[in-house]
Structure formats: structure tokens, C-alpha cells
Amino acid sequence: MAKILLVEDDHDLASLISNILSIERHTVESVANGQEALGRLKMFKYELVVLDWMLPGLSGMDVCTEFRSKGGSTPILMLTSKSSPEEKEKGLDAGADDYLTKPFHPKELSARIRALLRRPQAVAAKVLQVGSVVLDPKTMKVYKNEEEIHLLPKEFSLLELFMRYPNQVFSGDALLDRVWAAESAASLDTVRTYIKTLRKKIDSEGNASLIRTVHGVGYCMDLA
Q: How open is the CA angle 16-17-23, to the nearest 5 degrees?
């Protein structure tokens, strides 16, 4: 059970989300605008924020940016009707941990919330490093040999998961659950494709891959 702040100005949608989360035994506090959301975040501690992008007054982007600039590290799931990769990237760059495009299935909402709540919040904002690769969760940036490299959102999520749990082997199904949640289009082939592209971006020529394939089991990032 978690304490969740829901920021959504659509009354019907807010009621639906509140009911879904309440059934799963979460405690939900709901507000309808960005200014009130920031006020709540200053006064109270939450384990998760479900934040709509389009809000009256301060947008969800504004709330996210302001909250992160003040050192807020609570996981944020951003709800948005914007589906282009560029718009989603803006939300992640503003400090959101994940995004969900409207309309969405209740099961996908629940799965993404479970995935975010599984993250170790005490170390969520800690800069991670393996070899020459550095990942900063707060700025959502990745560097290799001190030069920034661009990762797609799912590549970033994969890399962050591996770096947070070095030496732990993840099966393909486990990666699907943790990174893709309930996205029906994702498959084990999807995982293999993203592992391949991620390796091309973070590995150094002549050296073994940072992400090791454990044949018949899954994938693991070994500590250097």
C-alpha cells in the first residue's frame, strides 16, 4: 500500500483512477491543478505522483520541473495525450520517471505504478556509474567517457535497471515486466532488439560488452 498524489483536472478520469488505486489498497489524495499539487508536495511526503500533463495554470511539465529543481525525488508517472517521441522525451527530460498515453487500460496503469513503486526510492536520485558509463537519474542524462550519449526512453530504463542491480541476472520476461509493463506490443524479440541497440551505444570497441548474456537465463551487468 502506498500514499499517492493524483493530479488530474478531469473529474471523471480522476474518479476512475482513484477507484482503481483504492481497490489496490493505495491511499490516494487528488488535486485538480498544478499550484495545489506543488503545495501538497511541499507539505507532505508521497511514495508516487500520478501527474497529468495538461492542467489549468501550471502544466504538469511545470510542476515536474519545479519539484525536481527543489530536490524532490518521488517517482512521477505522467499522463499525457501527446504520443510523439519528441513530446514524451520532453516529459522525461522534465523529470518524469515514466509516461502513460491516454486513453490507457486500467491494467497498464496498475502495472506501471507497481513498477515505479518497486524502485528503491532511497537511492533513486543517486548518480550511477559502471566503467566509463555514468547515468544521472535526476537529469535523465547518460555519459560515456564524459561525453553525453542519447538514449531512447526504453533504452534509458533498461540501462538504469541494470546499473541499479549490478551482477543480478534478469530474464527476458522480467525485463518486459519491469521496463515495458503491460504494453501488449512488446515481446522477447523487443527486449533482444533494445539490448542490441543499447550495447552499441554504451560499449567500447575492443572491450567486452557491459551487458553480459547469460545463455538460457537472461542478461546481467557485471561490475567492472
A: 90
- Dist. CA 159–CA 118, nearest whole Å: 16
Closest to 144 measured CA to CA, from 212, 198, 96: 198
> Cell numbers of 180, please?
515495458
Q: Rounded to whole angstroms, how far apart are CA atoms 210 and 199?
A: 7
CA gap 82, 102 in Å, rounded: 8
Q: Are 196 and 188 in contact (CB under 8 A)?
A: no
What does the pLDDT read at residue 206? 85
**Biggest alpha carbon–alpha carbon distance for the chain:** 56
Spell out the domains of the chain, with CATH numbers in brackets: 3-121 (3.40.50.2300), 126-221 (1.10.10.10)
Q: Judge residue 37's burial from the number of C-beta atoms within 10 Å of its C-beta, 0-12 exposed, 13-18 middle, 19 or more buried.
A: buried
- Prediction pTM value: 0.55
Question: Distance between CA atoms of 103 and 80, rounded to whole angstroms?
Answer: 9
Please give the Cα distance from 191 to 179 (Å, whole number). Answer: 9
Higher pLDDT, 117 or 195: 195
